[in-house]
Write a structure and sequence with these properties.
elongated, 373 residues, five-stranded mixed sheet, eight-stranded parallel sheet, alpha/beta
Length: 373
């Protein structure tokens, strides 16, 4: 599917895939690419887990995954699902019984790892529970937990081994007439992940969940994920994503959306275009952007804001944004609205004024969208 027509050099043609449902969220085909994250609280601490799910949903998460390592977590999951504003994926490792319990508790999807869930008979029991409770499945292949026979065959984790693992488990699901599944082939190595994802994308029409697993901390993990996921998305591969960071799940959601926004694949909230600042700046660009990012977090309407320190690129960038501010010296700058120079504003009043202009524009865009429905 082409997302752009006027500028063909920005076209992205998404891979054609089947569509499944994760709760009320469509995944695959032409559905918006869903953003996921995972809680890191103890699942048995229902209040803390629900609070984290709600924070992630407020940040834009479409789906949230929750680990279910023991029977007590299975019991807690039922209450978490009931209070969650978004579909919950149950993360299952080692104990196939947890998968059955999670389906019974109302999970929208079960994430099972083929390398550690058990033999085919146990997987079949999980499939039956998923079918009985209208629950989809994610086959989660991971380079760090490939099946023993594949490691013996290939000698080490490699794209071919990961694809073969995924296809083996797709066969099990399809042999049991179960087709509500998506698949991931994750590794912490960007090259291995990218090659495995390209291979699985060619071998199946199942929806694909993208991720660079165990990517690292906020900065390093963001960079690895942007490189790995960004390139795959650019190629049209990927129906849902999770950015795996050693950080607050809300940060994962923010990074995931920024990756999608940078490719024009999703639009949510204010996209701030700002310069890195230099000696020409007419105001403190870095501090201003930090403040605006915090104060504009409540805006969900897709729109653009340019914050440029001087007139070298400021007017040109402002031509392409809904609201803009360009530093002009002498303690003031120029405010741009809808790409046109509108009025001057002092640096001292600039932040409050920009917030007001953005809120007004968001209200205008929301009203126009509502009128068009």
């Amino acid at each position: 599917m082409s997302l752009n027509h006027v500028r063909p050099w920005r076209d992205i043609y998404r891979r054609k895939s089947r569509q499944i449902m994760v709760g009320n969220v469509p995944v695959g085909d032409d559905a918006p690419i869903a953003v996921q994250t995972m809680t890191n609280t103890l699942t048995t601490d229902v209040a803390a887990t629900v609070a984290q799910v709600q924070a992630a949903a407020e940040a834009g998460a479409d789906i949230v995954r929750v680990s279910v390592p023991d029977e007590a977590s299975s019991k807690a999951l039922k209450e978490i699902v009931r209070e969650s504003p978004v579909p919950i994926v149950a993360d299952i490792h080692f104990h196939y019984r947890r998968g059955i319990e999670a389906a019974e508790a109302g999970a929208a999807c079960l994430r099972i790892n083929p390398g550690n869930i058990g033999d085919e008979a146990r997987v079949k029991e999980v499939i039956k529970a998923a079918r009985d409770h209208n629950c989809s499945i994610r086959i989660g292949v991971n380079a760090g937990s490939l099946e023993k026979h594949l490691l013996e065959k290939y000698g080490e984790p490699c794209p071919e081994a990961m694809v073969e693992s995924g296809l083996e488990h797709i066969r099990i699901l399809q042999d049991n007439d179960f087709h509500e599944f998506k698949i991931s082939v994750k590794a912490s190595d960007v090259f291995l992940s990218a090659a495995a994802y390209q291979g699985i994308a060619e071998a199946t029409d199942a929806p694909i969940h993208l991720g660079i697993t165990e990517a690292g901390g906020l900065v390093s993990g963001t960079i690895k994920s942007a490189i790995g996921l960004g390139n795959l998305l650019w190629m049209g591969i990927g129906d849902t994503i999770r950015v795996s960071l050693s950080a607050d799940p809300v940060e994962e959601v923010k990074v995931g959306f920024e990756i999608l926004k940078s490719l024009g694949l999703r639009h949510r909230g204010v996209n701030i275009i700002s310069c890195p600042s230099c000696a020409r700046q007419g105001f403190d660009v870095i501090k201003t952007v930090e403040t605006l990012e915090r104060r504009l977090e409540h805006i969900k309407t897709p729109m653009s804001l340019s914050i440029i320190g001087c007139v070298v690129n400021g007017p040109g960038e402002a031509l392409m944004t809904d609201v803009g501010f360009t530093g002009g010296g002498a303690g003031s700058g120029m405010v741009y609205l809808a790409g046109k120079a509108s009025h001057k504003m002092s640096n001292e009043q600039m932040i409050d004024h920009i917030v007001e202009q953005v809120e007004n524009k968001a209200a205008e865009l929301d009203a126009a969208a509502e009128a068009a429905e």
